[in-house]
Amino acid sequence: MSTGWLARLELGFEQDGQRSVLRHRRHEGPLRVQRSFHPEGNTCHSYLIHPPGGVVGGDRLEVAVDVAERAEALITTPAAGKFYRSAGPWARQTQRFRVGADASLEWLPALNILHGGARVRMHNRFDLAPGARLLAWDLVGLGRPGSGDDFSTGALDAGLQVWAGESPLLDERLRLEGGSPALTAPWGLGGHGYLATLLAWPATPSMLADLRTALNETPGPRPGCTLLETASGSGLLVCRWLAPAGEALWEALVASWSVLRPQVLGRPACPPRIWST
């Protein structure tokens, strides 16, 4: 007998005249989008909500997003996700994003917090058609340092894939066990409880140089960035951060997004209103 519950959400964005719209949405369980906004013209801003707030062992969250040809979508979440201590079963979060020809997706979720003892499997996959553009990030906190929770028990098994057509751009897996040396050793997380990854496609060496210059002029943690160039000349920019506090990483992600958005998407940064509340 299976334990936990399933929450599933499907979202489909299409271009309708002069603006992009959320044409299709289907949900099972508590995951949903209540409404969409157009604060900058064409781009459709949507807020993904999970009213229960927390996920326990045995629960499954599945998100499928399709951005059709020429559509522009920005999706964020209004609050941190929380994964609670498990007696044994894994909590699973699977998210797949398809971005059509000449379409764009911005996936900018809030922090996911893994309480000590949580057992979590996360998998994100992005499929990009010709001319597609992507800005996406992921931010994870291990334990709750302010509450004395140092993630001494638990586990994280995280996968990330990015495909351009039939070609894999990135395929990686991260496995961390609570209390393992990898959490504290210099060759691992070095005692940092928060980690983040940012993706930008298509990117160029000049974009990477501009980002490094901008971040060197601001306080906060410094990322390690790599440009994965392809035979076509396009590149996938991958930036990673480690930090002792989630707020500093959030600010670094927003600052990086603000620099990259005009270059990747051709429009200035327009922070979702929910970020100011």
UniProtKB/TrEMBL annotation:
**Annotated localization:** Cytoplasm
GO CC annotation: cytoplasm
GO MF, one example: nickel cation binding
Record bears the keyword Chaperone: yes
Q: Return the InterPro entries for the record.
A: UreD
Q: Which domain of life is it from?
A: Bacteria
Output the Pfam families linked to this UniProt entry.
Answer: UreD (PF01774)
Which keywords has UniProt assigned to this entry?
Chaperone, Cytoplasm, Nickel insertion
Q: How does it assemble?
A: UreD, UreF and UreG form a complex that acts as a GTP-hydrolysis-dependent molecular chaperone, activating the urease apoprotein by helping to assemble the nickel containing metallocenter of UreC. The UreE protein probably delivers the nickel.
| Protein task | Required for maturation of urease via the functional incorporation of the urease nickel metallocenter.
* Recorded family membership: Belongs to the UreD family.
Know the name of this protein?
Urease accessory protein UreD
What is the source species? Answer: Thioalkalivibrio sulfidiphilus (strain HL-EbGR7)
